[in-house]
Amino acid sequence: MYKGILIGTGGQGKAWCERFLPPNIQEGLLEIVAAVDVNPAVLENPQTYLGLAADKCYTDLHKALAENPADFCVIVTPPAFHEAAVDAALEHGLHILSEKPIADTLEASIRIADKVQKAGKKMGVTMSHRFDQDKTTLLQELRSGRNGALDYLVCRFTCNMRNFGDWGAAFRHTMKDALMIEGAVHHLDMLATFAGARCETLYAQTWNPSWGDYGGDSQGHVMLTFENGVKAFYEGAKTNAIGLNGWAQEYVRAECEKATLIMDCREIERFPYEGGRIYKREGQGEKLPMLSGNKWMNTLLVEQFIRWLEGGEPMETDIESNLQSVALIFAAIESSQTGRVIKVQEFLAEARAGVLA
After folding, report:
1. Cβ(332)–Cβ(188) under 8 Å?
2. What structural domains and CATH numbers belong to the chain?
């Protein structure tokens, strides 16, 4: 059984204690031997939900790592603190499973990937939304072949979280690019997965309306072209009057040669091409059954990570692969700031060359 240390137990860390880790612990895949958080109050979470003893809950990361031999750690801190946690974990020879994004800057993400590679360790990133039931079902339908070639994708993620604290932790309301770094990191990753190719070019506009209680941009539009010719459009919003497609309820429309596929609030419809000028409304298509499974999202990714440690196939979201997803959000930020279309692969290569020079 693999032994792990949980770094971050408040906010999303509570969800890890309460929902994501227990099913895998119960199956005997892993054991959490210690937990760390700078806020002593939230150290109640691993005690309540994981049965961890109080003396195994720390406010000092280095002490926790030094006193508890382990195989891996799980990093569930704000992105700005990921690199420091990775450095500490690697000093103690641990493999790493981390919440998205890799870090709060592209440069830090590249440094982390380089450090992990040089240390010979495994690191996965929990791009959880890609592995949700509805998205996995839509991906299988797109890969089935019966809908013909994929032409373009549309994704909508809109929320009414305009007031301070509406989006959970305070750091999301004070950071510079909350929508991209904390939101679109999932959705652009999903679009690339559905497209089935790396992103070639990207153009974005991001902003914060006067009524948005954010320290940076909370709304955005992104246009993407992928290397296989598929195109996509993303609408992201945190400060709308009403939330139409919030977390885990996203809207995705896939326009294919032989059908239109619509995923909306966890239901998927298929509208086959019938010839002629035919108009229909959403709700009038063929509803597709969801794939069955016992684990989705982070719970599934924890199991995939442990299977990788056991010698199985690498996670789809291993650190090197996930640099593609990180590049999307920072290319979008760059595009919005400069007004330029960004060639994503060149953008990533130039950033990597600069960091590793």
Report:
1. yes
2. 2-128+298-318 (3.40.50.720), 130-291 (3.30.360.10)
**Tokens for 193?**
């997965």
The 10 Å Cβ neighbour count of residue 257 is: 10
Q: Residue 331's closest CA among 133, 199, 157?
A: 199
Pure H helices in 165-312: 171-174, 178, 185-195, 297-309
**What is the edge-to-edge ordering of all strands in the sheet holding 267-272?**
286-287, 267-272, 259-264, 251-256, 150-158, 231-237, 219-226, 199-207, 342-343
Nearest to 161 by CA among 151, 152, 153, 170: 170
- C-alpha 352/C-alpha 244 separation (Å) is 38
Per-residue pLDDT tens listing for the chain (357 residues): 999 999 999 999 999 999 999 999 999 999 999 999 999 999 999 999 999 999 999 999 999 999 999 999 999 999 999 999 999 999 999 999 999 999 999 999 999 999 999 999 999 999 999 999 999 999 999 999 999 999 999 999 999 999 999 998 888 999 889 999 999 999 999 999 999 999 999 999 999 999 999 999 999 999 999 999 999 999 999 999 999 999 999 999 999 999 999 999 999 999 999 988 889 999 999 999 999 999 999 999 999 999 999 999 999 999 999 999 999 999 999 999 999 999 999 999 999 999 998
Q: At residue 109, what is the residue type?
A: S
77 Cβ neighbours under 8 A, 6+ residues apart: 7, 8, 13, 85, 99
Give me the torsion for CA of 60, 86, 315, 296, rounded to 10°: 40
